C-alpha cells in the first residue's frame, strides 16, 4: 500500500513539474540586438514638433514563417503617456537586419526640461503561433531642453559705469546751481 501511495505521489509530482515547465515564462531568446542608437534633438522651442530616429541592428532565429517588425514608443516620462508609436517592418527574413524607426511628437508649450523614454521592441507576428510575440525589448531615456533658460537682465560693466558717472554728474550740477548765490548788477 505504501509503495502504491509513493508511486502516486511521485507521478503527481512529475506531472505538476511537467505542467509547470510547459507554462513557464522562460523562453529561448530568439533575437539578438546590438544596443539601439538614438537621434534625439537636445533643444526644442515650446510647441515645436520634434522628430527622433532609432536605429536597430540585429538578427533573429527566423524560419521564414514569422513576420518581424521593430516598434518604438516615445513616452513622456512624467505622465507616462505614449506621445508617438511607430513600427518599421523587417519582413519574413530577420536573420540579419538594420532598420530605422522615426517618431514625431510635439514639445510642451512651456519652457523647461522635457524627459522622454524610448521603448524599443522586436515583434514577431503570424506563423504557426498566429499571435504577436515579443522577442526583444529595450528602454532608454532622453532629455530635451524646451525653450531657453529665462533671460536675465544684462548690464555690461561699461554701461553700468556710464550710468553711474552720468547720474553723479547730474546731481553735482544740480547741487552747484542750488548753492550759487545770485548777484544783482548795480548800475
Question: What can you tell me about this protein's structure?
Answer:
The protein is of the alpha+beta class and 187 residues long. The chain has a domain at 30-146: Immunoglobulin-like, CATH 2.60.40.150. The chain contains two helices and nine strands. A five-stranded mixed sheet has the order 3-9-8-5-6, with no helix packed on it. Strands 1, 2, 4 and 7 form a four-stranded antiparallel sheet that branches. β8 (112-126) and β9 form a beta hairpin. The longest helix is centred in the C-terminal third of the chain and has 23 residues, at 157-179. The protein is rod-shaped, with a radius of gyration of 36 Å. The relative contact order is 0.17.
Helix content: 10-25%
**What's the total number of strands?**
9
- Poorly predicted parts: 11-27
CATH class of the domain at 30-146: Mainly Beta
In CATH, the homologous superfamily of the domain at 30-146 goes by the name C2 domain
The whole-number mean of residue pLDDT values reads 78
Radius of gyration: 36 Å
State the major sheet: 5 strands, mixed
Q: Per CATH, what is the topology of the domain at 30-146?
A: Immunoglobulin-like
